[in-house]
Write a structure and sequence with these properties.
By secondary structure, the protein is of the alpha/beta class. It has one domain: P-loop containing nucleotide triphosphate hydrolases (Rossmann fold). It is built from 9 helices and 8 strands. It has a 5-stranded parallel sheet with strand order 2-6-1-7-8, with helices on both faces. Helix 2 crosses helix 3 and helix 7 crosses helix 8. The longest helix has 26 residues. The two termini are 18 Å apart. The mean pLDDT is 93. The protein binds 2'-deoxycytidine-5'-monophosphate.
């Protein structure tokens, strides 16, 4: 069991609904939402903007360490559909990290062991300070192995590709469904075959298949479960007092 803070760790493949669901769960529970994928995307954007070879691990680690990366809840003025606001040296890159260009390159950076090590440490520091809903690809077994609640969100590849396609169109990126599906299969392969820490389902994870569920239903399931866990913890604390 984790520290005095409550940790919800969520893993799962691309477009399983992790971001939207985590954001809503965090809002309802008053927890901080942490999108760890955004951190790997920032590393990729920084490397591309600096003209760095995406295999140059040392240079990318230096870039991450030297840049001032901030992640926070969107303010009233920033509510344009984003789930989180990401700043690098005070510049808003929340949408710049979501383009197909970054999506197609990010797994090259995410497979670099020292980049992962630096980002995992940053994520653990964030979780130590407050209640969190943290989502990504290695949260349940690497970043927060003692999380109070571990969830693996998944969905069929067709449903996930349709969702991602719709999101791209909504953001003015005119890609075809076939392109999105192909990209998703490549990214699934990269996540699951990653030599360093591949995406996997831990034994104590609650597996939720979101293919046939509405977002609100998944959010309700998770929020209810956390409330029950918190009330049990609260009453145990009273008994032990
Ligand atoms: O969730 P996303 O699509 O924004 O993730 C971007 C990339 O980062 C994707 O290739 C998976 C990788 N990633 C990772 O390796 N570990 C994490 N904890 C989060 C994301």
């Amino acid at each position: 069991m984790s520290s005095s803070h409550f940790e919800i760790a969520i893993d799962g493949p691309v477009a399983a609904g992790k971001g939207t669901i985590s954001r809503l769960v965090a809002d309802q529970l008053g927890f901080l939402y942490v999108d760890t994928g955004a951190m790997y995307r920032v590393a990729t954007l920084m490397a591309i903007e600096a003209g760095t070879d995406l295999a140059n691990e040392d240079a990318i680690v230096r870039l991450i360490r030297s840049g001032f990366i901030e992640m926070r809840n969107p303010t009233e003025y920033e509510k344009d559909g984003r789930l989180t606001t990401v700043l690098v040296d005070k510049k808003d890159v929340s949408w710049a990290i979501r383009t197909e260009k970054i999506s197609s390159k990010v797994s090259l950076v995410a497979r670099l062991p020292r980049v992962r090590q630096v980002l995992v440490e940053k994520q653990q520091i964030i979780a130590r300070a407050q209640d969190v809903v943290m989502e990504g690809r290695d949260i349940t077994y690497r970043v927060l192995p003692d999380a109070n609640l571990k969830i693996y969100l998944t969905g069929s590849d067709v449903v996930r590709a349709k969702r991602r396609h719709l999101q791209s169109l909504q953001h003015g990126e005119y890609v075809t469904y076939e392109e999105v599906f192909k990209e998703l299969k490549i990214r699934d392969h990269n996540d699951m075959e990653r030599v360093n820490d591949p995406l996997r389902i831990v034994d104590d994870a609650w597996v939720i298949d979101t293919s046939d569920l509405k977002i609100g239903q998944v959010v309700e399931l998770i929020v209810n479960k956390v409330r029950v866990m918190q009330s049990v913890q609260g009453s145990q604390a009273t008994v032990n007092h």
